[in-house]
Specification:
127 residues, mainly beta, 7-stranded mixed β-sheet, 4-stranded antiparallel β-sheet, 11 strands, 47% strand, globular
Amino acid sequence: QVQLVESGGGLVQAGDSLRLSCVASGRADSTNAMGWFRQAPGKEREFVATISWSGDTTGYAEFTKGRFTISRTNTKNTIYLQMNNLKPDDTAVYYCAAGTGGSLRSVWTRRGDYNYWGQGTQVTVSS
């Protein structure tokens, strides 16, 4: 089992920045790609960003448009999502996810590719 704990959410104003963190524990060494998803009220959970175990491959949703950056620590058990120039449309619960399939350079954008999920952290952006 892998446990994922997110932190770093909060209430900010449009144009501000936030950095989300996700720490993996348990059998974290069994995971490969990790990613961030988000879910706004009344909407489906959507892909935000993904990073390979090696850290050298990343992928982003179009709406991030260079505002968001995903990164991973050398120990591989923590990922971050740096979010700049936040907009009210970014308001959502942000979830961390980890997958055990694929290879060290795999990245995934689909929810079904991930085995483990965190509880989420709320991000609220006021206008």
